[in-house]
Amino acid sequence: MSSKPEQKETHQANGAVLPIVPVNCLTSPERGQLVEPSDFLGPDGNGVEVVMLESRANAKGVREEDALLENGSQSNESDDTSTDRGPEPASPLKETSFSIGLQVLFPFLLAGFGTVAAGMVLDIVQHWDVFKYVTEVFILVPALLGLKGNLEMTLASRLSTAANIGQMDTPKELWRMITGNMALIQVQATVVGFLASIAAVIFGWIPDGHFSIDHAVLLCASSVATAFIASLVLGMIMIGVIIGSRKMGINPDNVATPIAASLGDLITLALLSGISWGLYKELESKAYVNPLVCAFFIALLPIWIIIAKKNAATREVLYSGWEPVIIAMAISSVGGLILDRTVSDPNFAGMAVFTPVINGVGGNLVAVQASRISTYLHMSGMPGESPETAPRKCPSPCSTFFGSDVNSRSARVLFLLVVPGHLVFLYTISSMQGGHTTLTLIFIVFYMTAALLQVLILLYIADWMVHWMWGRDLDPDNFSIPYLTALGDLIGTGLLALSFHILWLIGDRDSDVGD
């Protein structure tokens, strides 16, 4: 079959040879613009159908002519009907403030009640012997609760983005993403749990100058076991949530990260309390139990590393994703040191029940925003591309909260959820007599001020950090959320401790003194 000079090669489709014309010959200069099929005259004068295929320019400026052979389309074009595709998920670009709020509200309240339950648990277990005599366990609390930001929320954001851009549409792709990511978070959980115990030992030793090898091994065994089991359970829940969201037509970015936190705080704190209490009981009679627990979970590391390395989707994170989770763990441990010093003071005993709430709510909201911005950027290409969407300078607060784009709209919606959400959670704590506290007007004012300031700072930092990382060729799904949730723990604990201290100074004792 002869062809005209501009016809570069042919494409076999349904037994017929169809010529393919390069896009740059017949399209407008705009990249990625789709062109309708045209009729060209063949040698016999009859019309010959020319198939136009979308392609991307590679680094050398050469266009790939068969874009249908790419593994998983990452195009955000919605008017391409030339191929048979499954139903596309709703684009975040078309969401209204009402739809964002409606999708976020239920997971937000669910996550909030999870943090309330975690606060009630912490309020009870703070009187257990292991928390009284091994006070470094308090330092582990924010670091291990922060694992939901370091691991589970990062997993949720990563899988949400993969689902939104069509990388989990086939059973084979879905299974590959599940196995690789589950193995990856087990590696990260074990290592981060071990490092968190070291940080707790160091932070506990510096102020007092007291060190106990038995307590150090107890902290290591409790931290590693808690991190491993909690990450395994929560990772499985996350995968189910994201698959269910896709089938229901809900944007996973709006629901996955809050649900990760709803059970994350409660499960992690309950595991930490139970495991540390059990190991503390065995400390005197069976001292060998704690080292065996540490050795068992560390011995499993090579298995998870091998599985994660075999998966291309997680291999890069396995090598390069350690910096954010380790630094985030260190930041959360500083918040744990603040918690340890304040809870041990009888004047601030009621603070234990509120710390998981304010930290959890702030972390949940900023994780949703970071995940949404990351998905928005992924729809324009790969990290490092589209520099016009990834400014490296700090944005102005006005552009973050009062812009007309979808990310500013979601920031406003998330910020407006803070006050009504915290009022519901405070009422729940008060009705359950958590911390033996009485909610006075001045306490509510100081608490709400701390909560609003925390979320305001976090949303602004998220807007800058996600775009900055994108411009630096870093995937925000893997790098931003650990930093943001760790900063939420530190800022929330610090502001709450400051509020309690001011309330104590001005004499509002009914609000902050526990029985």
TrEMBL record:
<feature type="transmembrane region" description="Helical">
    <location>
        <begin position="182"/>
        <end position="204"/>
    </location>
</feature>
<comment type="similarity">
    <text>Belongs to the SLC41A transporter family.</text>
</comment>
<feature type="transmembrane region" description="Helical">
    <location>
        <begin position="255"/>
        <end position="275"/>
    </location>
</feature>
<feature type="transmembrane region" description="Helical">
    <location>
        <begin position="287"/>
        <end position="307"/>
    </location>
</feature>
<feature type="compositionally biased region" description="Basic and acidic residues">
    <location>
        <begin position="1"/>
        <end position="11"/>
    </location>
</feature>
<dbReference type="InterPro" id="IPR006667">
    <property type="entry name" value="SLC41_membr_dom"/>
</dbReference>
<feature type="transmembrane region" description="Helical">
    <location>
        <begin position="319"/>
        <end position="339"/>
    </location>
</feature>
<dbReference type="InterPro" id="IPR036739">
    <property type="entry name" value="SLC41_membr_dom_sf"/>
</dbReference>
<dbReference type="GO" id="GO:0022890">
    <property type="term" value="F:inorganic cation transmembrane transporter activity"/>
</dbReference>
<keyword id="KW-1133">Transmembrane helix</keyword>
<keyword id="KW-0813">Transport</keyword>
<keyword id="KW-0472">Membrane</keyword>
<feature type="transmembrane region" description="Helical">
    <location>
        <begin position="411"/>
        <end position="429"/>
    </location>
</feature>
<dbReference type="InterPro" id="IPR045349">
    <property type="entry name" value="SLC41A1-3"/>
</dbReference>
<comment type="function">
    <text>Acts as a magnesium transporter.</text>
</comment>
<feature type="region of interest" description="Disordered">
    <location>
        <begin position="60"/>
        <end position="94"/>
    </location>
</feature>
<keyword id="KW-0460">Magnesium</keyword>
<feature type="transmembrane region" description="Helical">
    <location>
        <begin position="441"/>
        <end position="461"/>
    </location>
</feature>
<feature type="transmembrane region" description="Helical">
    <location>
        <begin position="216"/>
        <end position="243"/>
    </location>
</feature>
<feature type="region of interest" description="Disordered">
    <location>
        <begin position="1"/>
        <end position="20"/>
    </location>
</feature>
<dbReference type="Pfam" id="PF01769">
    <property type="entry name" value="MgtE"/>
</dbReference>
<dbReference type="GO" id="GO:0030001">
    <property type="term" value="P:metal ion transport"/>
</dbReference>
<keyword id="KW-0812">Transmembrane</keyword>
<feature type="domain" description="SLC41A/MgtE integral membrane">
    <location>
        <begin position="141"/>
        <end position="275"/>
    </location>
</feature>
<feature type="domain" description="SLC41A/MgtE integral membrane">
    <location>
        <begin position="355"/>
        <end position="498"/>
    </location>
</feature>
<protein>
    <recommendedName>
        <fullName>Solute carrier family 41 member</fullName>
    </recommendedName>
</protein>
<feature type="transmembrane region" description="Helical">
    <location>
        <begin position="481"/>
        <end position="506"/>
    </location>
</feature>
<dbReference type="GO" id="GO:0008324">
    <property type="term" value="F:monoatomic cation transmembrane transporter activity"/>
</dbReference>
<keyword id="KW-0406">Ion transport</keyword>
<feature type="transmembrane region" description="Helical">
    <location>
        <begin position="104"/>
        <end position="124"/>
    </location>
</feature>
<dbReference type="GO" id="GO:0005886">
    <property type="term" value="C:plasma membrane"/>
</dbReference>
